[in-house]
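Let us begin with a simple case.
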Amino acid sequence: MNTLLLATADAHDAVPMNVTIVFSVILFGLILCLALEEKIHAKKSIIAGVFAIASLLLANIFHLYEYVDHRFLIKLPPFDAVSGHTVELPVYIPAIDWGVIALIFGASLFVDITSKTGLFTWIAIKLTKASKGDPRKLLWYYGLMTVVFSAVLNNVTAMIIVGSLTGVSLKKLGRTNLMLGFLLIEGLLTNIGGLLTLISSVPNIIVGNAAGISFTTFFVKSAPFVFVATIATIMLGAKLFKITKLRSVEEKEEAKLLVSGFDENDGIESSAFFWFGAAMLILFILTIASTSILPVIQDLGMSFVALAFAAVMLVRYKSTVDKFYRAMDWDLLGFFAALFVVINVMEHAEVLDLIGVGLAKVIALNDTAAGGMGTGAILVSSAAFSSVTDNIPLSAMLAKILQSQGTASTDPLWWSVVFGANLGGNLTPIGSASTLVAVTIIHKNGLVMSFGRFVKLAIPFAVMQIVLATAYVLLFLQ
């Protein structure tokens, strides 16, 4: 595998600029078609699938991949020539991040089955009662829960769990008109929560390791921004989506009377299954949160944890599991798979390298009389590019550039990359997996959310967050 990767890297040096430009146009075409999804009457998976097929065909024509019998050859241990085994995979198989696909599949399945225990209804009604039927209070409860879950679990799992609870609460309150605002705000908060710790997101890990930033240092420096950005996002969301608190005595009394009639035990068919589901949910959260330090499990990853817990819960419905499989959002999974293929081709076509060259020039502004302009510009630029490309290779590329320049671990440029890569996910629905999951949950609740509408609604939040991040980096991390 290492030999193949080196050969591919050498091949990259020979990619002509005109070929890179061709693939840049293809990437732009994908984004444009996703933005016009409703007008062309096609699902996201079909749009991305067509572009994935076209990208792979052109990649083969332009010899972008270093082929060995037209396939990636992956060696499995033992690695000696006598007893080693060779697995042949088509080039588009390793291009897909199967960890993300498995995580979404497993977590969605686990949450769907766990909801049958009545546990999520129980939690949602408890929260609703605690809010006394006040939508503004409920927004704060779910908003803070989203940030905490995103920090200790992962963005996708947090959105799936909180999104499910939100739907139950608002339906019980008869406030489904606020569903869009709640779910969108929660989706945007997942990327803020993902900034809280060194292990909350992959870009954090990449940049933190490259810069030599410790877990404690990362938390201490990111926490103030996460705190302020969370409050600002919830307040702005409440204003834009008109999620108001109950003011008059009549409204409060009416809500109190409504909430008092809720019975959290209504959805519980089996007490034993309920407590089993509760134990499994707590164990699931603890295992996901500690995956990186658990022996054996750390080698298998969070996707394995999600799939394993889903399998355990499926045993309860072992003769009727097909109904859960049918309920899966296969369009979402198909879209992600195709998108990963497109992004992989873009990497080999040096589209991301082209972006990196431009960003390297921006970084160089810090060495000129412009001073801090480079720091602010790199944050905004990395956010913009992360909104339409995978922020993982982009973060890795920028980390390498900063390392090659001998950038000190205390330099604010590192934080510009961290904040930009994470917050860029809030600019478009394809900017991060969690925002796309939020859109999917919105669709499941019968609401319309196109690519264009998401951008229109999310822009005020994303701009506010990026402005806050830029000011924070320039004023407090210099």
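The second case is a distinct protein. As before, the sequence precedes its structure tokens.
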Amino acid sequence: MIQNNTIKIALFYLISISFILLNLWLVIKKDTLAGFALPFLLGLLLLAVFSFDKLIYLTVFFAPLSQELSRLMPWLSFNMYLPTEPILFGILLLFFIKVLQERQFNREIILHPVSIAIYINLFWILVTSFTSSMPVVSFKYLLVRIWFVVAFYLLTAKIFSDGKKQEQYVWLYLSSFLIVILYAISRHWGYGLLNKQAAHYVVVPFYNDHTSYGAALAIYLPFVTLFSFGRAYSKKIRRYSMIVLGILVTAFILSYSRAAWVSMIIAILVWGVIRLRIRFKHIALVATAFLFFTYSFQDEIVGYLERNSDESSSNLLEHFSSITNISSDASNLERLNRWNCATKMFKERPFWGYGPGTYMFQYAKYQLKKDRTIISTNAGDGGNAHSEYLGPLAESGVLGLITFLILIVTVIYTGIHARIRTSDKRLKGILMAAIVGLITYYIHGFLNNFLDTDKLSVPFWGFTAMIVAIDLYSRKEKQTADKNPA
């Protein structure tokens, strides 16, 4: 025992002295403090080896706080989010090493219909990366999408496979997101809370603008509402959650994100449809009638929209109504400009597209002078196609859009049926919150696109993983109940 203690003490001093000497050498000879990152890197390595799930939790926690490398080192020719994307790349490598070594993964997750829909979408992104007008850009886009899927869908679904830890995943993001929210509100306070323009930059440097910030708030609001009023949670958790809910609602209003507001309204309607168990044929009938009405009176509708002169402003009602202003609102007109470019790109290459991730580099030549606005740019630095649907259409052709739509439909179908099947009230609540949260993003996706960032990929793929894991868990529960009837 004494000998073992002596060895441990000797190792401690050896490592400590080596660390001090290494840092002195780096500071004196190389004029850098890079050595102080070694304990952090060592800690990540230990997490990866001994506790894979903790590494994912760490990434989820840091997502709202992550910074773009271009902000820290603007002279570099490439960009990534720090510290999340280097960690995600490490997770991807370790995942493939582990799978090759053990030659197995959770078979039920791998073969789930949602997983298959994801593979089909990824496969088409791979194919169109080979045919891309800018292959390097497209393969980088594919790599980023893969590490998001591996970490926040495949591995996260495995973490959730026992029907637990969903709340932990949500609170990890929220705990650091609250830091960003309080930071943004405090900055907004200085400019005046009713200052709409301030909403665009008070979230910088954590979020690029108020639209991605609003989307993140919208996707998490259903969960915080569940934690505030769900009977499956203790009074202490509900009280704390109500405070957080008040903060998120305040931030949601102050985000001045019209797309987020609209997405939440539609998500609430979907929640009502699911709660009332309205049959799909009735929904399809209403949707068909709406589309027929819109098509029949399209000229009148466009004329009405063109007469709307409400500009985006600090007045909340005027700001909301300005979402239909397509005659003078610069933000709306620029969005139409980007959509027109995407449509023209699709018509140019309807099957293969220009290549995943290439829209921002290719759309400029499709801008017409009459479509350009005061915020138009040829550099693509003002966002991409402003649509999760038109973006893939322009970049990966018609199958790029179809495969993404198949994924969305499969997730919603799985979530609703899993909710009907499970008898666990807690899991029912989580499924509803995940479905409604994802619906906010599916709707928001008509107006913006953020799935190339860690900020929205964490909830998008994480909530999808929750639905899949609970679906599999509820199936096992039902099989057990059928075998052992009371």
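DSSP finds 20 helices and two strands in the chain. Residues 41 and 87 are 10 Å apart (CA to CA).
Keep these points in mind for the review questions at the end of the chapter.
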